[in-house]
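Table 4 source record.
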Amino acid sequence: MDPHRIYEYLTLARARVFDRVATLSAAQQAHVFPIGLGSLGATLTHTMMAEWFYIRRMARAAVPAYKEWPHRYEAPPGFEVIRPFWEELAGETRRVMREVRDWEAPISYVAMLDDGEAGPARTITATAADIFTQLATHEVHHRAQAMMMLRQLGAPVEDLDFSAMTYARR
């Protein structure tokens, strides 16, 4: 598996979702659904910030406390903030991925405790490949939720299969 190719697919599929979200009103983007994180805004913000978090882990960089993150899903910014932030983040993700020299080398970090969570800190060890796999599958999971929300709002996104978007055709 080529993580760079997978990431390019994620950005292609994400752009199609973005194009549909852009057609919705702010009220539609904030509409609360009984699944996942509730709204498109919350779902997109959570997924975007997870990528922000994961690439910091891949780069072995410090991750600030959650309350210091640029955006949080509990108070998602508008789509006019989400789209450009995530598009800029995609450039940073590509750069971090290009700098990975050994996808199987262990990366250890101390896991952050959530606010109010008690107990000893935990040391987590994964590889860049593991972290990227989490980034990709996490996005696909939440993209499916966003696609369901878009369908319910009358703005469906169809056929985002990897093969449909990346296989050569003649």
